Amino acid sequence: MTSTVPNAVEHADEQQPPITMFGPDFPYAYDDFLAHPAGIGQVPATEHGTEVAVIGGGLSGIVAAYELMKMGLKPVVYEADQIGGRLRTVGFEGCDPSLTAEMGAMRFPPSSTALQHYIDLVGLETRPFPNPLAEATPSTVVDLKGESHYAETMDDLPQVYRDVADAWARCLEEGADFSDMNRALRERDVPRIREIWSRLVEKLDNQTFYGFLCESEPSRRSGTGRSSGRSGSGPGDGTPISRIPSWRFCGSSTPRPTTITGGSSAGRSSCRSGCGSGSPRRSSTGPTGRR
Q1: CB-based contacts of 244, cutoff 8 Å, min separation 6
Q2: What is the maximal distance between C-alpha atoms in the chain?
Q3: pLDDT digits (tens, 9 = 90+) for 199-228
Q4: What are the residues whose beta carbons fall under 8 Å from the beta carbon of 232, sequence distance 6 or more?
Q5: For residue 12, pLDDT beyond 50
């Protein structure tokens, strides 16, 4: 079930630097690189026009081809199926055209600033994802222990959900230095990020996520540890914390993800621009042709 429990920290303060995917596992400011007037790299002019094979026409392959083209190289994308890979929306034969399914990812947090750069580049539309109890969702039904609860706001749910939400926020703060890590992420303070993360890994590496929730002092005080997994907070199983992406603790999982409208056209719109002469192209929006 998609979580109905709010994140510990809301990221709506526009006066602060944003939370991005910059973190302990990935301390690279790609959004800054992408915004730089010189681009993300260059090659000697003598190499302009050199063909470069890109294996796979999914999102990563198309982005790689686009950036190679901007450097003056001539990427050739090899794709066995469809440009765009799994980033596409499909319908169902004989069904209402509005009934669709996403073949790949369907939620993209605002912290994915590099992805947003390319979304803007090709002019794709995004809209809020209808998470339970989000502004884009008028109502939801939650099942807990065989009992269904209809809700339009958090206040419509039983008290246990608010207790779990409060305990979850306190677990992250008291047990995972959540505010300190968020501050370091906003400031892109790599030494501080590594210091906090190393301490957390040492303390929690052999702990399960469920165990972390159940054994934390806030959960014990409120008696909500065992309810956390059932109500959508964390995997609710024995998954070791060392195998859970660090962004769960670092604020990158924001409460306002978006979904892409027309995502299946991303690769096609990138490719339609054509290849050009093999010299650096700063204004083009697509890689070279495909084979």
Answers
A1: 209, 235
A2: 69
A3: 888 888 877 777 777 777 777 776 665 555
A4: 1, 2, 3, 4, 5
A5: no
